[in-house]
Every structure is written in structure tokens, then in C-alpha cells.
Amino acid sequence: MAEHRSMQRAALLDAARSLLSEGGTEALTFPALAEKTGLARSSVYEYFRSRAAVVEELCAVDFPVWAAEVSAAMSAADSPEAKVEAYVRRQLALVGDRRHRAVVAISASELDAGAREKIRAAHGGLVALIVEALAEMGHAQPRMAAMMLQGIVDAAVRRIELGVAEEPAVITEAAVDMALRGVQG
User: Fold this and answer.
1) CA dihedral defined by 86, 92, 96, 101, rounded to 10 degrees?
2) 8, 19, 37, 131: most buried, per Cβ within 10 A?
3) 184 CB contacts (<8 Å, ≥6 apart)?
4) What pTM was computed for the model?
């Protein structure tokens, strides 16, 4: 029975990712989750009490996976500068992943304070990965520099998501260049 519930929960989360990445937050409804999974709408409520609960669970499941991928890319780098580059490149490479598109859609939505705090905490964990490399590079305030670096990544993510002007590779190169050299370009 527990295994069946776990599989159903995973199916609901997968359906939520699809709905969010394809149609944004408006698409994430319990009737749509029920339809995508073949469950009765009342059954969806047995797993999640609200849309915010679905969002919180997605963050709890997906953010650690991304952080592990970014951390692995940084671990393979052999200098602080290469770690910064890996941090930026890996995050931007994840933009096409539907888990990422789902959370981008989530972050644009109206969430309760608990869900917003979980997203902030997860992002904080991601930013914490780069603080040490920035300290090794000589930044007097590596935590602040890490937050600003994440701002560059976030801006590049939004630019890639827009899909209007430059190719993702061009945006990635510009973000890496700005992260390593600032606006002197």
C-alpha cells in the first residue's frame, strides 16, 4: 500500500511538472492533475491539500537534484574561477529541463508564505555552493558576491526563457563573462 501511494504521489508530481512547464501556474489545477494521472479529483486531495502543497513538494524534490548537479560540476573544476564558470554554466544548462521550467513558473505565481520561504531556502542552498570559491578569489564579501552572481544567473535564465533574441549559448557565454570579468567586457 505504501509503495502504491508513493508511486501515485510521484505520478502527481510528474503531472504537475508537465502542467507547469507547458501552461504555467494557471494550468496547475486539481482537475488537470486528476485528468493527467487518471485519478479522481477527490483522490488528488488525498495526496495534496492545495496547489501550494504541490509546489512545496516539487521544490523539496527538485531543488536538491539541481543543487547536486551544480555541485558536481563545480567539484570537477580545478580552480575557483573554473568553479564560478561551472556554477553559471550548469544552472543555465538546466533551463531546458522541465523541472526547471516548472519551478520558474511556480516562482512567478502567488504562493503562500510557507511555499515562498521554502523556495528562498532552496535558492539559498544553491548560492551557498559558490561562496567558498568567491572567497578563494579574494572577494571581501563572498556571500554578497554570491547573491549578485546568482542575480546574473537569474537574469540569464529569464533571457533564455524569453527565447526572443539571442541563442541560449550566446546568453550563457555573456553570463559567464560577466560573472568572471564584470561589466568591463
Assistant:
1) 120
2) 19
3) none
4) 0.77
